[in-house]
């Protein structure tokens, strides 16, 4: 069989199969694997080189052994080589699944009896590929009906819903583990006791020197009142801690020292100090800050009452 496929077909086909397999199995994003990973390109080059080398060696060995054969053996070899595909039984069988031709001399057996000004018609069978496809469709239809309409497998839209729900869970899981993706825009107020406790720890380690352990303020302003120089609410406070206060006032940007999740915790802790009224606290500085969200529901209720 090997001898029936000439070398100029064999080598490119084997190479194409290996190349295709590499591209299929190596995950290289939107770029071809052999571009992204130079090792793959190198491997393919070496592989091609070896393939050609092996072909050359094998044909050289064949040549040499041929000359060593006796005339009788040469004849046998020629016979073995003269393999004809169109006489091969297995091939004919496979071919008969797809095409079926009636020999010309038997055509009169299927000639229909009408004759249109000399134009006659043959009653040929439908081509086997067509019929087999038709039967395959029937079998497919039966299996499909049984699977989806009798045994109730989930439909495409149900599968879609399930996958979306799973994906949503995965995103939530990812967000939980990727706490440090937050910034001043996306930050939310933490209220869990454990998070507030973690915020307190950060505060005690980094902030008490200027804001006092109770947040009453010394070098830095009082953090327990409702007045804010740089804006209250979780977003503004997160921004102040992460980017620092006004130049020269002494409040540095903490984003280099603290992780975003820690800034979120300490900002939430600072907010939790509101109204604790520590003794000898600094006088309020800045403007009274009213939480935006606190007002909105009130407006809505008024609108509803009207
Ligand atoms: C070196 C002293 C110092 C340290 C340490 C310090 N701060 Fe400050 N902080 C200040 C000063 C001074 C201001 C006022 C900044 C301004 O007026 O622009 C301030 C302002 C703030 C404000 C804004 C207050 C407002 O009214 O808008 C917050 C919130 C704050 N600090 C939180 C923290 C937190 C949390 C830490 C610890 C991670 C911290 N600070 C550490 C000195 C400090």
UniProtKB/TrEMBL annotation:
Coiled coil: 157-184
Cytochrome c domain segment(s): 194-274
InterPro entries: CcoP_N (IPR032858), CcoP_N_sf (IPR038414), Cyt_c-like_dom (IPR009056), Cyt_c-like_dom_sf (IPR036909), Cyt_C_IC (IPR008168), Cytochrome_c_Oxidase_Subunit (IPR050597)
Pfam families: Cytochrome_CBB3, FixP_N
UniProtKB keywords: Coiled coil, Electron transport, Heme, Iron, Membrane, Metal-binding, Transmembrane, Transmembrane helix, Transport
Superkingdom, taxonomy of origin: Bacteria
Transmembrane segments: 7-26, 38-58, 133-151
PANTHER family per the UniProt record, alphabetical: CBB3-TYPE CYTOCHROME C OXIDASE SUBUNIT FIXP (PTHR33751:SF1)
Protein name: C-type cytochrome
Annotated source species: Flavobacterium ichthyis
